[in-house]
Amino acid sequence: MTLLTIVDESLCALLGEMLLPQVGKVVTATDVGEIQRILIERESPSIVLFDLNRQAELVEICREDRQEKIGFPLYMLALVNDDQLGDFIFAEGIDDYLRIPVCEHELGVRLRVATRILDLEMELTNTQKELRYTACHDPMTGLLNHNEIIDVLQRRLDLPETRGRSVSIVMMDLDSFKHTNDTYGHPSGDNVLCQTSQKLLDLTRPVDSVGRYGGDEFLIVLNNCNSEDAFQLAERIRTAVEEDLLAVLDDE
Questions:
Q1: Hey, is 18 helix, strand or coil?
Q2: What is the pLDDT of residue 79?
Q3: Residue at 141 is within a domain
Q4: From CA 142, how far away is CA 144, in angstroms rounded?
Q5: Quick one: pLDDT at residue 171?
Q6: Which of 75, 78, 91, 119 has the fewest CB atoms in 10 Å of its CB?
Q7: What CATH number is attached to the domain comprising 214?
Q8: Total domains present in the chain
Q9: Do 128 and 232 belong to one domain?
């Protein structure tokens, strides 16, 4: 875990000795350019410790960074010399505060609490991501499910920037899929659906959306694509899926 300190030079050395045993890495910033560089690095800080009385501008940058990086928790701990600032601190969205002069034991306790809160926030964020993914994707193929692909199409058509551009759709199914299930068994049929889904993802662009409409039916939403290009893509998909289907069934 990385901790960013925004304090004056008189506190840097003292805090460095106190903080290093508590966290994995301590970095210090004293000006706007330096803190912006630290915040955009791959290893962004999880905890920011700052002197509220002297570094208001830098603190505001951290607060904005936290709002922008949803899913990357940032715990803000203020150093103050007046307990009366407590209400103001919490109203400003700062998580906690500590009196100056700093007590090493109290600082350690606050950091352990901050670490525990950050771990819980990250766990909650990951759980929310998993729930969103599950709600929007077909569990077998990993494609967008029926409701989500329809929503994607509707949102695409409703976007202002879509006006004047082409949005095409490709609707397809697998010929004689019931016969495949009856002849080779449902596990083989599931394998065919998964192989087909991967082929559709391989043949479409990142800006396109691919969904399982239901059963052996698939719906592809093509962004900024005219009917001629959509037809050509559909033909490439038909040929590729046919070849893959024969190969998969030959292996069964």
A1: helix
A2: 79
A3: no
A4: 7
A5: 96
A6: 91
A7: 3.30.70.270
A8: 2
A9: no
Q: Are residues 119 and 17 in the same domain?
A: yes
Q: Token digits for 202?
A: 């391989």
Residue linked to tokens 């694509």: 225
Which of 135, 167, 185 represents a domain boundary (last residue)? 135
Domain span including residue 219: 146-251
Q: Which residue has the tokens 């409409």?
A: 213
Extract the residue ranges of the chain whose pLDDT is less than 70: 1, 3, 6-24, 30-32, 36, 39-45, 52-59, 63, 65-73, 83-86, 160-164, 246-252
Query: What order of strands is seen across the sheet that includes strand 167-173?
Result: 167-173, 217-223, 209-214
Compute and round to an integer the Cα radius of gyration of the chain: 27
Sign of CA dihedral 65, 70, 74, 79: positive
Cα 152–Cα 153–Cα 159 angle in degrees, nearest 5: 85
C-beta atoms surrounding 139 within 10 Å: 8
Give, for 214, the enclosing helix (H) or strand (E): strand 209-214
What pTM did the predictor assign? 0.70
Tokens at 227, concatenated: 């009917």
Round to whole Å and give the CA distance between 28 and 17: 13
- In the chain, what is the straight-line distance between the N-terminal and C-terminal CA atoms, in Å? 50
